[in-house]
Design a protein that fits this description.
The protein contains ten helices and 16 strands. The protein is of the alpha/beta class and 323 residues long. It has a single domain, classed as NADP-dependent oxidoreductase domain (TIM Barrel, Alpha-Beta Barrel). The strands form five sheets. The protein has an eight-stranded parallel β-barrel with strand order 3-4-5-10-11-12-13-16, surrounded by six helices. A two-stranded antiparallel ribbon has the order 1-2. Helix 1 packs parallel to helix 9 and helix 2 crosses helix 3. The two termini are 20 Å apart.
Length: 323
């Protein structure tokens, strides 16, 4: 199943491939493993692939482009991001301080200026080996709101009007500023990571209703809150830090309910994100073919209405959706 992003003509699959992991997020992934992950995504019916210069200092884009070169361009959708410009660096060492196990041969420069938007996109196209991408997001403009709204967004709007890209938006780990983009600009889509999950529904307060009202699509990332909802256990991560005890307990209780209904917590987490009418696609990061196949299997698993009802009856879910 595919959906159209906002008022654009860009279509995305219900499950999307997130490219951070194949940029060596936290640990190294070989070129062969990255290629196998993208191939498994394709074989599983995924046709929307997301990356960014930030992911492995360009490594994710390079690997994604190489793997997708085996397929016909009109058959898949690619998004990338602008806002972090990559510059050469001779500092040496690695990039683990920024989360990626790659040599620090480049450094990131925050820049949402109109000139940087175009230059960053051109560099991304070169790494991807493509002459166009379908979607471009302003990437994490949390501390750069003024420049992002004054220069970055108008630059994207111009690229869209010129036909260089098909859809534009912003991608963040918060809902507040994304709501502002939805209400104050003509974005087609926003990518909201971690703020609409079984454990965090903060995007439901304003962002998702505003998106429905304005006809803006939402791509949901971080469905597992960086790990806790995928495998709740002591030491599991929540938003990239060790999960607090109360949230671990809640996730463990949710898993018990899921198992009683014959499903996995992973399936429930993905189904929850996909069920909202504003959501066009659920973005899942994967570093191996096995992880991709598991995500696709879980995404395709029907979740019985009785599961949602039991979550509500036990106070583990406090909203009426999904039904």
């Amino acid at each position: 199943m595919t959906s159209t992003l906002g008022s654009s003509a860009v279509r995305v699959s219900g499950l999307a491939f997130g490219g951070a992991a194949i940029g060596n997020l936290f640990t190294e992934v070989t070129d062969e493993q990255a290629h196998a992950a993208v191939t498994a995504a394709w074989d599983s019916g995924i046709r929307y692939f997301d990356s960014a210069p930030h992911y492995g200092l360009g490594l994710s884009e390079r690997r994604l482009g190489e793997a997708l070169s085996a397929y016909q361009r009109p058959e898949f959708t690619v998004s990338t991001k602008v806002g972090r410009r990559l510059e050469p660096s001779t500092d040496g060492g690695d990039d683990l301080a920024n989360g990626f196990a790659v040599p620090a041969t480049r450094r990131r420069v925050w820049d949402f200026s109109a000139d940087s938007v175009r230059r960053t996109l051109e560099a991304s196209l070169e790494r991807l080996g493509l002459d166009r991408v379908d979607v471009v997001y302003l990437h994490d403009p949390d501390d750069h709101a003024e420049e992002a709204f004054r220069e970055g967004y108008p630059a994207l709007e111009k690229l869209r009007s010129e036909g260089v890209v098909g859809a534009i938006g912003a991608g963040m780990n918060q809902a507040g500023m994304l709501t502002r983009f939805v209400r104050e600009t003509d974005v087609d889509v926003v990518l909201c990571a971690g703020r609409y999950t079984l454990l965090d529904q903060s995007a439901l307060t304003e962002l998702l209703p505003a998106a429905v009202e304005r006809g803006v699509s939402v791509v949901v990332g971080g469905a597992f809150n960086s790990g806790l909802l995928a495998d709740p256990r002591p030491g599991a991560t929540y938003n990239y830090a060790q999960a607090p005890g109360d949230l671990l307990d809640r996730a463990l209780r949710m898993r018990e309910v899921a198992e009683r209904h014959g499903i996995s917590l992973r399936a429930a987490a993905l189904a929850f994100c996909a069920a909202h009418p504003a959501v066009a696609s659920v973005l899942v990061g994967a570093r191996s073919a096995a992880e991709v196949r598991d995500a696709a299997d879980q995404f395709a698993t029907p979740v019985p209405p009785a599961f949602w009802q039991e979550l509500r009856d036990t106070g583990l879910l406090t909203i009426e959706e999904p039904s």
